[in-house]
Amino acid sequence: MVEELWKVGEMPFRDGLYRPDDTGLELHVEGPGAYHPDAGQPVPFRIGGPFDVAQAIEEHGVDGVDAYFESPLPDGSGWMSGGGGGMGNIGYLARLNDDRSLRWVAVMFHSNPFVGVHDEGASTGFTNDWGNRLVLDLTSSALG
Description:
mainly beta
């Protein structure tokens, strides 16, 4: 289900970290918007427990993927893709394998679209369209 959505340029329309085996983890992201006093600050990002992906898609539907970048990871372990969805407040990040098949996609309803990626040593940094930053350790067990 998740992998098929990705292949046709869509993603689930609910916060979550989705994998091609149709498993998902809750994501808690409180991204500042355009006029938020914290614009330009780090994007809060917390991974929670598992949830029913099929039920989430049934209840919330899907949204189109608007890719803003696709960039190789510095260690050669694959690619990162980022961008947004149909509404201006939705952002996504996707980790792709060497052949660009989906490893996971993180959908964030309040993050705003991600427009850039940069290496930060042991971590990878992402910037959204309001200049807010999200730094992730892609070697963590949830994101590896």
